[in-house]
């Protein structure tokens, strides 16, 4: 039996690291730390050891190919409508519209980021 959640880290493939940083900063107000890891350019998302959840990086290199057909990462948001407006204003596209699940108490949506990835949003509702 696992004592922790199974996922600990993610990498989002990008073609243009500075364009992707600009997009994610504008949509989520993230601050990034640039690193070279195993020869690949990375921009690390914020991470606090004491906080719940996982973190990851925007990753550029020949092994990283943006796609709308692979794994879907969910970012939390406190305001789905405002976040989706920022996605659109930054050149992203809505792929799955805001959908409310009253039974389980959340709202989800999916968008295409600046690099062509399918990214999801999750907002808890009360």
TrEMBL record:
InterPro entries registered for this protein in UniProt: Anthracycline_SecMetBiosynth (IPR052164), Glyas_Bleomycin-R_OHBP_Dase (IPR029068), Glyas_Fos-R_dOase_dom (IPR004360), VOC_core (IPR037523)
UniProt superkingdom: Bacteria
UniProt-listed PROSITE patterns: VOC
Entry-linked CDD domains: SgaA_N_like (cd07247)
Pfam families referenced in this protein's UniProt entry, alphabetically: Glyoxalase (PF00903)
Start and end residues of each VOC domain: 6-124
Name by which UniProt lists this protein: VOC family protein
Organism (species): Sphingobacterium anhuiense
Phylogenetic placement of the source organism: Bacteria, Pseudomonadati, Bacteroidota, Sphingobacteriia, Sphingobacteriales
């Amino acid at each position: 039996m696992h004592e922790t959640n199974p996922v600990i880290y993610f990498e989002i493939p990008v073609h243009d690291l500075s364009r992707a940083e600009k997009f994610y900063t504008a949509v989520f107000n993230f601050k990034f730390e640039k690193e070279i890891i195993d020869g690949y350019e990375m921009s690390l998302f914020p991470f606090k050891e004491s906080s719940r959840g996982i973190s990851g990086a925007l990753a550029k290199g020949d092994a990283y190919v943006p796609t709308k057909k692979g794994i879907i990462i969910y970012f939390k948001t406190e305001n789905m409508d405002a976040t989706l407006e920022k996605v659109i204003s930054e050149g992203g596209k809505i792929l799955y519209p805001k959908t409310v699940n009253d039974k389980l108490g959340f709202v989800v949506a999916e968008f295409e980021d600046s690099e062509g990835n399918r990214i999801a949003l999750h907002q808890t509702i009360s």
